[in-house]
Records
---
Amino acid sequence: MKTKSYFFQSFAIVLLATVAFIGFKQFLPKKIFSESAPNSKNVLIDSMLLDAVAKDVKATTKDTLVNKKIVFDPTFGVTFPAEKFEEYKGYQYLISFYEKLYQLETNPESENVRIAYFGDSMTDGDMIVQDLRADYQAKFGGQGVGFVSITSESAASRGSITHQYSGNWKTQSYLNVKKPRSPFGVNGHVFFANDTAHIEWVRFKANTTRFATMLDNPTLFYGKSSNLNGKVNVIIGKDTIVKSLTPNNLVNTLKVSSNSIKGFKADFIKADSIPIFGFNFDDGKGVHVDNFSQRGNSGLPISTFNPAVMQAFNNKLGYDLIVLHYGTNVLNYGTKDYTWYDRSMTKTVNHLKECFPGVAILIVSTADKGTKYDLEMKTDSAVVPLTVAQKRYALKTQSGFVNLYTLMGGDGSMVKWVEEEPVKANKDYTHFNHRGAKKIAGLLYEQLNQGYEKYKALRQKRKPAAKKSPDSTGIKKDSVNA
């Protein structure tokens, strides 16, 4: 009898819970029940984005840029034609990058170019970036995948390099730690081998990816510490090489091998309290592209970068272009007024310019995103307002701009990429599959290359600097500034 009594009690509880759920469902946000909910596994929440949204005062300003003719001042004697806001690309502000490409193209043995590509889940697992890297290396040369963090939530899905690591690393990310124990590295992370009872390790192996079939000049990057006892045991095949860490500077490097190798394992011994950033792999020639992707990132955490540390990184790596590819995590926060994001990212980009003086910056807008309206998937109503805000802060910070939304086809394009053959995006109507990522990389490269070809044509037409001649005082002066 007691068994029957418990059965009916349990049944009654389940029945009441079901009725209560149905009753309350109508008062809950509809998107909780979306039929195309994205996979949110291991997604971190950008704390700075949440703070910015919470502080949004709904302040709007009169748009003075839309109808304004954008006229440029010459750089290196080159001036691109004036642009309208609607079609703004900002090639003028990429001239320093284009000049480095030109020097590389004309002097391939003595020059190299480096790009830092910051992004969110759209570039997770080296998506998009690996294909953009290959496009540049196919034209200008270069071997290697560039900078790779100690740990990564997308390591298992990355095809451009095999990356494994122990689970006892202490990780601090600029997404959710505002005051790290030590400044973040250029990858937005800092790692510590503080588990003194167990060895922290990391292992890398080259795959068959084009232009990355070997690990070229593997080099460890680490920070400053008072611990002078740290060592790294580098295991290459059957050989173990013991290397000491000397954390005297803000950014230090340790070359694992002077040769190109297929793979290695690094064990960190007595390295607690030493900030560890990651490893770099490149042959020092051609073009190198570092992928600094982070799921859940709005771009705002870049404002926490320490300028001195970033300048130290830049002195060692030498960046010529920084790409900021964000937007996915900014959509759908209850507003179509992105004045707050425009304002916050303007400050962020200007801070980045302080961190990397003289380095050109390119803003890549959000891609199209599909959302269900009246049982039909359409372009999310927040996509266009966000792209306009991104274009605004690109212009205000004198950065180049790629409108990814229009490049991929504009209104309704994500729905087509998901539903039409060949399928180029996932069923979340937000992220690209490998085919789509390769297509996006091609579109990005095409626009950047169009600007480069236009730059070369304008460069040929620029006026040469006048020869210096003595004036009446005998002092030589430039009569013309090229």
---
Amino acid sequence: MTAATIAPTRLRLGLAALAVGAFSALGTPAYARGPDGIADVAEKVIDAVVNISTSQTVEAKGGGGGSNAMPQLPPGSPFEEFFDDFFKNRKGPGGGSKGGENSPAPRKTNSLGSGFIIDTSGVVVTNNHVIADADEINVILNDGTKIKAELVGVDKKTDLAVLKFKPSKPLVSVKFGDSDKLRLGDWVVAIGNPFSLGGTVTAGIVSAKNRDISSGPYDSYIQTDASINRGNSGGPLFNLDGDVIGVNTLIISPSGGSIGIGFAVPSKTVAGVVDQLRQFGELRRGWLGVRIQSVTDEIAESLNIKPPRGALVAGVDDKGPAKPAGIEPGDVVVKFDGKDVKDPKDLSRVVADTAVGKEVDVVIIRKSQEETKKVTLGRLQDADKVQAAVKTDEPPPEKTVTQKALGLDLAALSKDLRARYKIKDSVKGVVVTNVDANSDAAEKRLSAGDVIVEVAQEAVSSGADIQKRVDQLKKDGKKSVLLLVSNADGELRFVALSVQ
């Protein structure tokens, strides 16, 4: 179980609440313990829940002073405390040596997690982090039978994995329920292998839905107060019908133990990922081919969008599906394939969940008017694109500044300025040569070398153009102006600045 360390200061408040809860529990009526159906659910599904045992060979390197280095154990391993004590507080064999023939040999480490059977042919679902980098994977059934398993496929973005093994006897399987039908306060049951104790049943309620904790691009977790601990990773979260409505994946905890804040990947997401992993051994996600950003209050005011909503298109891939469909930078996507888009995360999730090659209707707002574009989705390539931000010493700003506006020193692009700021020839607009440190522009992280391409969705080529547009917006009573800004490489983003 991955222990997330989100808002650690808030976690301390739980200690005071614990004492209050212990006192008030004395007068708690019997029905508050939960519905009677929990025992029936547990009895029905317990044999479909399995333990996942993995082993990994790690290189033990000699540390400073000759002590053996602690192996890097997979998250949630029940042996973490043991190895921490052994390697940090004691010296293993050969202690005091500095390499050579006395260097520690590679050693094998073990990790335990949970999973569940979805097909009696021997198909198991678990978390990717439970089996990541494992040399050997074993499935341990509820009766203790241990069987070697093979990896079918993984999806790192949702932290899911599918395994397969050959059963030696008939199995019990479980099916997915509809996580979209969950309501806050619904009772749920978690079963798994916390701290390698095996077959442990806990119950609680759905505390929240659609939680985004910034752990991945498609976050939409079910939050529950059912006790989930290290080792529960990959285990199922059931509704009272015995259907899997989530896969237990994350906890927030200062100590590694449950404090009543656990997260499960919803079954709607899991079912789609599992189907593709079983069919293709990989994920084939839809791709729209746009870069998007949030529609802030200032941007919404500039674009006359009320209330603020949708995903603002900051850039369009020349080779992507959105380009031939007529989607442009500055468009705001408010609906995709019949589903409302409240924010960029919504759009990312719904596009990823849509079949490659499907033609969909994309509703955009352009210049205060709604338009519908038909887009045939491409396939998202999962190769991670890492873009390193290289900071260079900036030369002093040009002595002769064409115009000053919005707290910016502005100049028409020239060969000298392109060379100074390494701006590509394809980038057109007005270059920023200096930013007033006390301006709104500085707060929005504009910097020397940025190029203003458009002001209020109109192209500009000089500082005078920008000043003219700003003056007109002030006359019209606008509070902010929307800039389309490019970096030296041509990557675009929208920035709203106050004109007051």
---
Amino acid sequence: MEKRKLSFWEIWNMSFGFLGIQMGFALQNANASRILQIFGADVHELSWFWIIAPLMGLIVQPIIGHYSDKTWGKFGRRKPFFLVGAVLASVGLILMPQANIFISVLPALWVGAGMLMIMDASFNIAMEPFRALVGDNLRTDQRTAGFSIQTSLIGFGAVIGSALPYILTKYFGVPNSTVPGSVPLNLTLSFIIGAAVLIGSILVTLFTTKEYSPEELAKFEDPQNDAISDSEEKSKITDIFTDFAKMPTTMRQLSWVQFFSWFGLFGMWVFTTPAIAHHIYGLPLEDTSSQQYQDAGDWVGILFGVYNLVSAIVALFFLPYIAKKIGRKATHSLSLIIGGIGLISIYFMPNEDWVVLPMVLIGVAWASILAMPYAILAGSITPKKMGVYMGIFNFFVVIPQIVNALIGGPIVKYLYNGDAIYALVTSGVSFLIAAALVSKVKDVDDITQKS
């Protein structure tokens, strides 16, 4: 028995909630360091605050994956998790830039870090079931297209989220200036808009997408799959550790690629704002509140929007076709090389306008990072374990971020003398290492083999 082939718009609607998730995620990625610095964090402390994000992923995603595999009711299998995650993330989005209203109870920096934790936990609650849904609903020959469409929506959402503070100031006159210790109005309003879009986009997926029942998925299972057999009914949360020990070979091989890819991404997200403000704008390291610093922060939002827009275009119009011609592995390796060159080249850019060019290259890598590993992985996972294995796979996304969070700040402070631009160069080198490791991965159902 074979799954029904879905139309483009069915796949689009199935993934549409990712537009809002990534809009909120992009607002966080582009502005969390800036907000935390406004509330008093030093540059070398930023990675320690950001450790909240991967820790939430490490804890939340496998658990959510396990329970979403076991959930089935009138609201479906994955859908309840989308909605709960979206509501909680919206709360964090609204309150993080307004953390200073709680200063009578706790320091604004603590509240801001707490809201960052809530957002990350909630994004993880929503994100993992979305990836599992693609594996649940799509046939092998549609998975690359499915993850690519998902990546394009991630890109479009991230463009809107990253650029929104700049757009509100540039075209709607919302001020981006502020007094020390307070977040500019354009940021606060952007986070509120992001929360509203997040809820709305999730509802589109909820009302337009049908899920296969567990009984239907069982009929699609390939008995030759090298993942753990499902002949035994598994229902305990501790089974996550058993599943981890028996993960497919392809997942083990991809783990090293993911480690160096996400080590590099974390460094980029945490240190781009201080790197651009100091290295490109020429501001002193201790400046976190001047008008020039706010301008630099807004421009980082535009730069992040650029790489996300490029990723959306590449994922939607190019990745599936390139992968069909040269294979998923070669596509991913080439994309990572392009992104690594982009990150390293930021060091050599003469002004802020030129930094757009490296961001275009980074966008190519980001498109592939969000699509190719999951398309490769999905072919090695049994359908009944799609959720939990997608969650376990997230270990190899969050562990490198935790490592970077622990060592990135001290490296910037003591090895790079506080100059965050070298953290971006390090991220570029990490991408190049990941590209080399792709050759070790076995893609068990590469679409080139089925052409």
